[in-house]
Specification:
The complex is a heterodimer of chains A (547) and B (459). Chain A has 547 residues and is mostly beta strands. Chain A contains two helices and 38 strands. Chain B folds into three domains: 190 residues, no CATH class; 55 residues, no CATH class; 135 residues, Orthogonal Bundle (Cytochrome Bc1 Complex, Chain D, domain 2), CATH 1.10.760.10. The chains are: A mainly beta (547), B alpha+beta (459).
Chain lengths: 547, 459
């Protein structure tokens, strides 16, 4: 009882300090959303019946080698599309579909880019209703199916989530595929969620071992390996759809290197939570060096931060919700005086106005004819405020539409330092939005300062992209932090430049805690540049796009 | 900005007891449309430069440090003025005054860079904790900024061409970077877009020529002005400390909102840009005149002009404000179409010298870049242990010498009373030139000093 009471007091103190910190540091006034303009994009929609009520992810990555990210967009029953980026720097977005690609599969629910074989070319994990696929990037946006080469068992389940990490000493990343309803089991769909599957490489080889079931599965719609307690080993957060599970909950799996995964339980401190989990976004919002998690759902979206812990003790996965405190519940549409709850899918933290305060994009859309939920359900663009909270900025940004959004990505598609937006809609054309700052279509105006970086671990180390690293960017008294992850969102993710919005900073210091826990030195960089941070190097490498 | 004296008779009763010297912001957009003449804008800037700001104007920053990036400091019993962490001056002209408003300052007017970013209680002036700086003259600054803009444009264009060529050819391309005859080293560009910046000389990898501050770390008069208003007076310009970046209109919590608008900063910049450039004043006596002329020849002969380049050509003297290379938080052409343009030549046509091809010559005796100026043998200029804005402790901007006959004391710390001492402390990359100077006869060395004395600031 005393422990409980102490914890309650500790919780109160924690939030009092958090609020006091932000209220002290600035008076709350609305931070301003940048303006986005809708760009022409090849016709593409996420199509299909019940199996494609979920999914609709997009992968954002550079397969051409020019630094500009391409888009791989799931199509459901329609073929997936690989869209080549032909945009110029700071120019209108220009994408064309690539024909004759083996990626044009049907049944695709989503995809995540990662460099599986560590050869410097981005590969793709393609999630499907049916066998999944790993494609090896060959350069020049050419791909080859690599299931056999990497001894990858694609399974036959309905795949709706994915994440990956590198375990120490391995030559391939550890993969996890999240599955939805097992349609073959009696009684489906209710209470018949499929187990999820973990695939580890065989020690020291570039081949995968057999699938390991993560049981029980609760109809995962998003997964993310993330080091929530900064103990050096990422754990697997799984967001599950309560629509179909029985007795299920949100999950956090401990995945110790080389050992069998085990789900955290109440005894470990894990607090049961039941939501219609659809997507995961993570970011250190509170500035304590630990990631916080936004979980999308049907109205009851959560923003979880780690509850205060006794000093000196191992951290326990006790999360508490601060969505209401920070104005991030986004539980109903902000248009039309709507009162019915909304349905959230992809979520992503990103600084869209480069003011140094993180923002949050949330894709919205009715599942399909769910009359108790909002039918006209526009996406959210929550703008981070000086007081630490969020204010809706989508109307100002000009991105209000009423399609049924699913997957999305916030990424700089024309390498002007301002983050653009791609939204995949169910049974409606995808949307491509160009960020024009505080300007207009033909006259963009800059936002704040920015830095785009990526990591490089030279051989013989594996994991050259530094998955699992933490990046810190410092200007004056402020530090921005970012964990390098693969996974999360809704059925799609991105690999490429890590973007930091930096306000008025003209120069910054950058350092990296590499995946093995070692800290690199503070490196100096000017803002509004692209840099590569190479492990062991004494200075960053500057990079410039070609056009 | 309007001065309190600019009020109508009808407003006078309401102004009784009013201790403000400012009554409202100037509208930058309106300035760009010509609501005020150039002379009126410069006059407004001059008033701002000499005004002794009050607490009622927003002077003081009890909750903010002097850092360039808006930064809070502990609220508490902070002093209104503080010699090291600031605010440390009541007016711009409180320090920039020796040749009139905009001039240089005595040693007593030194400022301390590092403590400005910290709590006021951090009051050490020791060189291992602080960068002490003398107050420099601003005369001719408009021309220096225009030179820097043109050089930045050139260097970045050379880089862009190299990037395009490397991608097109698939080969690493090495390009020499130069503008106006000044080399900034070279740059290698790989076909994949990565740059090797290790052979850059005297400039940062951003390839922005920064004409101001002893370390050449300030891009424009505007960037300096916004920073200095906050640092020295606690007056916070909205373009960096306003709602957009800080979430509030009174970031420094002194009870005054939106203390300086963009138009105010523009006026202050124009006043500084319009300060006439220094020029040579030859002595009347033929003996002294001959010494100056011979000293100028010897100055070149021993190699001083390899860095203190006597003149650089300027393509256009049209000073546009704001400029093109200002970072976020300093109004730039990336933020607004409203640009104020002032033809600097028209302000002081008698001071203009042109080259044989008709181009304006800026006779500032600088190459607009940094050099290593100190070493173990001559450590005086490397007295600090801290780097400033990524610039090593032994590197400094080539000081423009065009007003050096008027601006004693010398050196970045203003701790040298004679030009001879300043020359003798040249080490590093300047060692050979200093040795050549030392090898001259005493009479010849004296002639060089006499030449330098002839470079004057005249109001």
């Amino acid at each position: 009882m005393n422990n409980k009471k102490n914890r309650l007091i500790s919780d109160i103190n924690h939030f009092a300090l958090f609020l006091a910190f932000h209220l002290y540091f600035a008076v709350a006034e609305a931070g301003e959303a940048p303006r986005f303009v809708l760009e022409r994009v090849p016709m593409h929609a996420y199509e299909g019946g019940w199996e494609h009520f979920v999914g609709g992810g997009v992968a954002v990555f550079d397969c051409s080698g020019d630094g500009f990210p391409e888009l791989y967009v799931s199509g459901g029953t329609a073929p997936a599309s690989l869209l080549r980026n032909r945009s110029g720097v700071a120019e209108a977005l220009d994408f064309v579909p690539l024909a004759d690609t083996p990626l044009a599969l049907k049944g695709v629910t989503g995809a995540y880019p990662l460099d599986v074989d560590d050869d410097g070319h981005m590969d793709l994990a393609v999630l499907r209703v049916g066998p999944d696929a790993l494609f090896r990037g060959l350069g020049g946006c050419r791909f080859a199916l690599a299931n056999e080469a990497w001894a990858f068992d694609p399974g036959r389940a309905w795949t709706t989530a994915f994440s990956a990490m590198w375990e120490p000493g391995q030559r391939l990343p550890t993969l996890v595929f999240g599955h939805y309803v097992d349609r073959q089991r009696p009684g489906a769909p209710f209470g018949t969620c499929h187990d999820n599957a973990l695939l580890r490489p065989i020690d020291g080889e570039r081949r995968y071992g057999p699938r390991v079931a993560l049981r029980p599965g609760y109809c995962a719609l998003s997964m993310l390996f993330s080091d929530w307690d900064r103990d050096g080993t990422p754990d697997l957060r799984v967001s599950n759809d309560r629509q179909y599970y029985r007795g299920g909950q949100e999950q956090l799996w401990r995945v110790p290197p080389g050992l069998r995964p085990r789900a955290y339980t109440l005894a470990d401190g894990w607090r049961p939570l039941k939501i219609w989990g659809m997507g995961i976004a993570s970011h250190d919002l509170t500035g304590d060096g630990l990631p916080d998690y936004f979980l999308t759902s049907m109205a009851d979206n959560k923003l979880q931060t780690l509850a205060p812990q006794p000093f000196g003790a191992d951290r326990r996965p006790e999360f508490t919700d601060i969505a209401y405190t920070l104005g991030a519940t986004v539980h109903r549409p902000y248009t039309d005086g709507a009162i019915r709850p909304s349905t959230a899918w992809h979520a992503e933290f990103a600084d869209v106005n480069n003011d140094g305060r993180i923002d949050l994009f949330v894709a919205k859309g009715n599942v399909e004819g769910m009359v108790d939920f909002a039918q006209r359900d526009p996406n959210n663009l929550l703008i981070g405020q000086a007081d630490g909270g969020f204010v809706e900025g989508a109307p100002t940004a000009g991105i209000v539409t009423f399609e049924k959004a699913r997957g999305a990505a916030v990424a700089d598609l024309n390498l002007d330092g301002m983050l653009d937006l791609v939204v995949v809609n169910r049974a409606a054309p995808m949307e491509l939005w160009r960020n024009v700052g505080f300007g207009e279509r033909d006259r963009p105006r800059r936002l704040g300062a920015w830095l785009m970086l990526h990591l490089h671990q030279p051989s013989p180390r594996s994991n050259r992209k530094g998955i699992g690293a933490w990046v810190e960017v410092r200007s004056g008294a402020h530090i921005w932090r970012r964990e390098v992850t693969v996974g999360g969102g809704h059925a799609g993710g991105q690999a490429g430049w890590l973007h930091f919005g930096l306000g008025t900073a003209e120069r910054v210091d950058v350092r990296v805690q590499w995946p093995d826990g070692q800290w690199g030195p503070w490196l100096r960089s000017f803002t509004n540049h692209f840099i590569q941070v190479r492990r062991g190097a004494e200075r960053p490498r500057y990079w410039l796009p070609g056009a | 900005m309007m001065l309190a004296s600019d009020v109508s008779v009808a407003d006078l009763p309401a102004r009784i007891g009013d201790e403000r010297v400012l009554t409202g912001p100037l509208d930058h957009d309106a300035l760009a449309t010509g609501t005020l003449s150039v002379a009126e804008m410069i006059a407004a800037g001059r008033h701002l430069f000499v005004a002794r700001f009050t607490k009622a104007d927003g002077a003081g920053r009890p909750a903010a440090t002097a850092a360039e990036v808006p930064t809070r400091r502990q609220l508490g019993d902070t002093p209104a003025f503080h010699r090291t962490s600031g605010p440390d001056a009541n007016a711009c002209a409180g320090c920039h005054i020796q040749q009139g408003p905009g001039g240089s300052g005595d040693f007593a007017m030194n400022v301390f860079v590092a403590p400005q970013d910290m709590e006021w209680a951090f009051d050490s002036v020791a060189p291992d904790l602080s960068m002490e700086r003398g107050t420099t003259a601003i005369h001719g600054a408009g021309l220096l900024e225009l030179l820097a803009r043109e050089m930045t444009r050139d260097l970045q264009a050379q880089r862009a061409s190299a990037v395009a060529e490397a991608r097109r050819t698939g080969d690493t391309v090495r390009v020499g970077l130069a503008s106006k005859g000044v080399s900034f080293g070279s740059l290698a560009v790989d076909p994949d877009g990565f740059l090797d910046v290790s052979d850059l000389a005297g400039i940062h990898p951003d390839l922005i020529v920064k004409p101001f501050s002893q370390k050449a770390v300030t891009r424009s008069l505007r960037q300096f002005t916004v920073t200095a208003f906050n640092t020295h007076h606690g007056l916070q310009a909205t373009e960096r400390f306003g709602t957009r970046w800080t979430g509030g209109a009174d970031f420094d919590k002194d009870g005054v909102a939106d203390e300086l608008g963009p138009g105010d900063v523009t006026a202050a910049v124009l006043f500084q840009a319009a300060l006439p450039p220094p020029r040579q004043r030859l002595p009347d006596h033929p003996v002294l005149r001959a010494a100056v002329e011979e000293g100028e020849r010897l100055f070149d002969l021993v190699g001083c002009t390899s860095c203190h380049v006597p003149a650089l050509e300027l393509e256009s003297a049209l000073f546009t404000e704001p400029g093109p290379y200002n970072p976020p938080g300093t109004l730039g052409t990336a933020d607004t179409d409203a640009v104020v343009a002032v033809d600097l030549v028209a302000l002081w046509p008698e001071r203009v010298t042109r080259s044989a091809n008709g181009k304006l010559l800026v006779q500032a005796y600088t190459d607009m870049k940094r050099h290593r100026i100190a070493d173990a043998d001559r450590p005086h200029f490397a007295n600090e242990l801290l780097t400033q804005n990524f610039v090593p402790r032994d590197q400094f901007r080539t000081a423009p010498l065009w007003g050096v006959g008027s601006t004693a004391p010398y050196g970045h710390r203003g701790d040298l009373t004679t030009l001879r001492e300043a020359i003798q402390h040249h080490g590093g990359d300047a060692t050979a030139v200093r040795q050549a100077y030392d090898a001259l006869s005493p009479d010849d060395r004296a002639k060089i000093i006499e030449f330098l004395k002839s470079l004057k600031i005249e109001g």
